[in-house]
Each structure stands twice: as C-alpha cells, then as structure tokens.
Design goal:
Residues 5-245 form the ABC transporter domain. The protein has a single domain (5-92, 163-258), classed as Rossmann fold, CATH 3.40.50. Helices cover 36% and strands 25% of the residues. The protein is built from nine helices and twelve strands. The strands form three sheets. A six-stranded mixed beta sheet has the order 6-9-10-3-11-12, with helices on both faces. A four-stranded antiparallel beta sheet has the order 2-1-4-5, with helices on one face. Strands 7-8 form a two-stranded antiparallel sheet. A hairpin with a 2-residue loop joins strand 11 and strand 12.
Length: 259
C-alpha cells in the first residue's frame, strides 16, 4: 500500500536562498510523522509545499503514490490534506460553531431562497467535538474565549469532520503550557488512531516523541535523517536536535576557558 504523502529529495529555493535541499520523508495512514528543527531549519517551507502554498523546485512530491504539483491550498484540501497553521485562521469574535463551519455552512432552501441552517450546524459541531472527546460548555461562545489548547482542538476536530486524510499541524504546542500541550497531543493521538496521517511540526522533541512514529530532523534546509521510533531514543533525538557534536565541542571549549 502506498503512503498518503511522500517527498523524495524535495528542494525549494527563493532566489539565491536555498530553503530546502534533498528532503525525503513519508506520511502513512494511522501514523504521526514529526518534523523537527529550530527556526530557519526549513520546517515552514516543507509544510507549505505539502499544503499547496508553495511548489517544489526539485525532487518529487507524491500523494498516494502519484507525483503531483499542487497549485493552491484549496487543491490540497480537495485531496484531503488539511493544514492547521499557528494562527489557526479563526475569527475570535465568532462563535465556536460558526468557526467550525467557516466557508462550509449547511443551508436550507434552494438558490437565492436558501438560508443558514444554524440548528444543524450547532448540533453537528457539538457531536463532532464530542466524538473527539472535546466537551465544550457552549458552542455559542466566541472562539476567542477558549484557551489556546481548546482552539487547537477545535481546529483538529474540524479537519477530521470534513474528511481530511492528512492533518498537518504547525507548531500546535508552541505557545502552550505543559497541561494545555498535553491536551493537544492527546487529540493528535486520537486523530492518528482514527486512521489519519498526521504531520506534526515542532521544535520540542519532548512533545514529538510520545506521539511520533517517525522523526524527520531538519537543519538549515537539509535533512539530518528520517528515523522510525524503534531506531532512535528520546535522548538521541534531543541530542541530534541540539547539534550533539557542536554542544560537546562548546562544552569542551568552555571547560578550557574555566581552567
């Protein structure tokens, strides 16, 4: 069976700046592929290629085994690739249910005589959130009144409800405390268990390791390797992320200064 998504030696340049160079990874159904790296590592460029916002310059991007060049995020969404960016694209003053259906509202009637079916939208939102284990007091409350973790969870539930096969999450735990981050990671695991392929972008190996099945490490646009969970420990993942050899050289240098 082919992977949901696959990149083979994908590269992307902006003028003379090489943002990505020869990056390969796979995203399978029912698995979480974690993309790790510091700022400037190329994480954002990679997910924008997967999400249809950029086109790759070199290499191959495959969806279910077929090479593609996505022309827009809309095309990616039509192919079942949903991306939840850090800013979440929510309208803070709008209710939870209006945000849940933003742009895809259920309607009654026909043509110019149709109107928004609020009752169905509210019931569907409540049911979809409950199925993901999200218990909101009131779907009428503005999204802006939710915590950061709850907002991420609503965005995840929305993608699942609208039939996403692949869910791409851009630093979903970056601005969250320990407890809120744990809540979001639980819903990431639920999406995986429902058969979605999940791409989790993060700079925190402690968030990636508990839910990840595969780890792609990026540094300055290049891949440091793509590892299955069985092949790498949390300690080694953290060491690779931090630039293990560089840290050891720095430690040795500092020890020499202290003497």
């Amino acid at each position: 069976m082919s992977s949901l998504l696959e990149t083979r030696e994908v590269g992307k340049s902006f003028g003379s700046v090489i943002a990505l160079n020869g990056v390969s990874t796979v995203v399978n159904a029912g698995e979480v592929t974690c993309v790790l790296g510091d700022n400037g590592a190329g994480k954002s460029t990679l997910i924008k290629i997967l999400a249809g916002a950029h086109q790759h310059d070199t290499g191959e991007f495959l969806i279910e085994g077929r090479p593609v060049r996505l022309s827009s995020p809309r095309e990616a969404l039509d192919r079942g690739i949903a991306t939840v960016f850090q800013d979440l694209a929510v309208v803070p003053l709008m209710s939870v249910w209006r945000n849940f259906f933003l742009g895809s509202e259920p309607r009654k009637g026909w043509g110019p005589f149709s109107w928004l079916d609020g009752r169905t939208a509210r019931a569907t939102t409540k049911k979809a959130l409950a199925e993901m284990g999200i218990d909101l007091r009131n779907v009428e409350q503005p999204v802006g009144t939710l915590s950061g973790g709850e907002r991420q969870c609503v965005a995840i539930a929305r993608a699942v409800h609208f039939g996403a096969k692949v869910l791409i999450l851009d630093e979903p735990t970056a601005a969250l405390g320990v407890k809120q981050a744990g809540v979001v990671l639980r819903y990431v695991a639920q999406a995986r268990d429902r058969g979605l392929g999940v791409v989790l972008i993060t700079h925190n190996p402690h968030h990636a390791y508990p839910v990840g099945d595969r780890f792609l490490l990026l540094k300055r646009g290049r891949s440091l390797g793509c590892f299955d969970k069985a092949d790498i420990s949390l300690e080694e993942l953290t060491r690779q992320m931090a630039g293990g050899a560089e840290l050891e050289a720095l430690e040795h240098e500092l020890r020499g200064v202290q003497q």
